[in-house]
Design a protein that fits this description.
This protein is α/β, with parallel strands linked by helices and 143 residues long. The chain has helices at 31-42, 56-66, 81-93, 111-117, 126-142, and strands at residues 18-23, 46-49, 70-74, 101-105, 121-123. Helix 2 (56-66) packs across helix 3. The protein is globular. It starts with 17 loop residues before the first strand and ends with a helix. The relative contact order is 0.18.
């Protein structure tokens, strides 16, 4: 991906929107998140990828600082999935939840789990997630 990414987007192309991505604390998997990041860049988004094993505090600080339209959270281990809910709780506590859409993904993450933790959408795969992100920013522009 590090070889491909520099060639994806021209410097003069205006970003469609900003997305912050992170694999939550305790989880070191990032293949799916990396695919999402690349597809988002190809679709015209500015992507800030915080990496893996990202503490909730760092995610919240980044959302406050960068004011993204979308926050994407990834977890592949069922034991780390609850951390996604902690991030959303902290977004609310910090007063920034209303300004950002939250999309979650990872093979064990279900639509029902996403609803319980208060996420806006659960992506079944990378393409599904990118389609939803494009839809969200298109709705914002139209509104």
């Amino acid at each position: 991906m590090s070889i491909i990414n520099p060639h994806i987007k021209g410097e003069d192309m205006k970003a469609r929107g900003r997305v912050v991505l992170a694999t939550v604390k305790g989880d070191y998997h990032d293949i799916g998140k990396s695919l999402v990041a690349t597809l988002l860049r190809v679709s015209g988004f500015e992507v800030v990828d915080l990496g893996v094993d990202v503490p909730t505090e760092r995610i919240i600080e980044t959302v406050k600082k960068l004011d993204p339209q979308i926050l994407g959270l990834s977890a592949l281990l069922t034991v780390t999935m609850p951390e996604m809910g902690e991030v959303i709780k902290e977004l609310k506590t910090s007063g920034v939840r209303e300004g950002v859409k939250v999309i979650v993904g990872g093979s064990p993450v279900t639509k029902e789990f996403a609803e319980v933790i208060g996420a806006d959408f659960r992506a079944a795969d990378a393409v599904d997630g990118v389609k939803k992100c494009v839809e969200w920013v298109t709705e914002r522009v139209s509104a």
